[in-house]
Amino acid sequence: MATDSQSAWDKCLNIIKDNISLQSFKTWFEPIKPVSLEKNVLTIQVPSQFFYEWLEEHYVVLISKTIKRVVGDDARLEYKIVVDNNTSGNPFTVSMPTTKQGNNQNEEVEAPLVYGNSIKNPFIIPGLKKINIDSNLNPNYTFDSFVEGDCNRLARSAGFAIANNPGGTAFNPFVVYGGVGLGKTHLAQSIGNQIKVARPNKTVLYVSSEKFTNQFIESLKNGSVNDFIHFYQLVDVLIVDDIQFFAEKGKTQDIFFVIFNHLHQSGKQLILTSDKNPRDLEGIQERLLSRFKWGLAADLQAPSYETRLAILDQKMYADGIELPREVTEFVAYNIKTNVRELEGALISLLAQSSLNKAQIDIDLAKKIVKNFVKSISREVSIDFIQKTVCEYFNVPVDLLKDKTRKRAVVQARQLSMFLAKQFTNQSLKSIGKFFGGRDHSTVIHSCQAVQNLIETDDEFEEAVGQIRKKIEMSL
């Protein structure tokens, strides 16, 4: 039989370790310290009242049998619960009745969703009881609503892999970085929402760096820093948005370092977003930066024209909206760097149309877009559009102004009118003048004919895309 508390507890730990998962052992038994062994009473020290309650609820049978095996049949266990220095009262002991029955000691134990009175959930308003941890996720942020393109394919693919195996991939931590409005928060929360669906037993938590900092400051004021740390260490998937705002906040970085280390070593998933690559962040401790680089850092770039158009299409489909194709193409073409502004322009279009009973057309789109970009991309000349189209179809430019009805010429003429309406601010009447003095109704008919061909002829749609790119490159 063991005669001192340290050796007795070490023997107990060896037995307990073989009966529960490694993760549960690290979380619930490694923090325990043996205090004394007197008259077959083993006293151990635990970090908090909550910790004591959790052991009592889930591991009392395993602990009781182990202590009796190591110390003797009449062995008893007592706890010494740590009380913060700024909290009134001295450390106290609680005797554990060895006959109390707990859950099956061999079952896997996940992070608890019900808290005792002693541990403080920083997301709870004082005085209000909160039972479950609110993930703080926006249910609208899902992979289905996140449009994939060349600008985000790596990040999205890695995010999807993480969602299906949180903590089990090489992408831990997973850092998503990029400029404003490119979908960092959307992607990060999509991962969280997917994990909640696929693995509802996992505790997922999204928090902004600002809220995390404010919670830490509040815990300092209340003397509950230990509870604050312990709360975050119980999370299975932690998503922290805008980590660049941790810059120059030394104490916050110290606390986050502790939480990060615990979660990472415990196989929990960390997902971070930033406006810069981790290597370019300033005001962040080197030890944190080195850990940010352990996993994968994937950037989100400005979406291409095709991706921007797909984003608008997806948004309209989700909201049950249908707009003229020329309008969405114009918006997608002119708002190039910010997905948030792209969707904002669409909402503004609908609002203007509804409130002012205005028809949604290219003219309204031009007015709206001016509110989102400092200047709409400079116009190309209609002459340049004609030349570009005719070079592609191998048609003489002069024939566009002629009355010939040859199919190749008619198609080139109609497409030139269509692109002139998109890429210039010329009126329909003015566009017609560049094509042999044709009237505005001919221009309208030509644009509609081209739109119909784009929707029904894949080869023609590909041709339009290539010509459009040549025009865009000239801007």
Question: How is this structure best described in words?
Answer:
With 475 residues, the protein is of the alpha/beta class. It has four domains: 5-96, GMP Synthetase, Chain A, domain 3 (2-Layer Sandwich), CATH 3.30.300; 153-300, 3-Layer(aba) Sandwich (Rossmann fold), CATH 3.40.50; 305-369, Orthogonal Bundle (Helicase, Ruva Protein, domain 3); 382-473, Chromosomal Replication Initiator Protein Dnaa, Chain: A (Orthogonal Bundle). The chain is built from 19 helices and nine strands. The strands form two sheets. Strands 6-7-8-5-9 form a five-stranded parallel beta sheet, with helices on both faces. The protein has a four-stranded mixed beta sheet with strand order 1-2-3-4. Helix 1 crosses helix 4 and helix 12 runs parallel beside helix 14 (362-369).
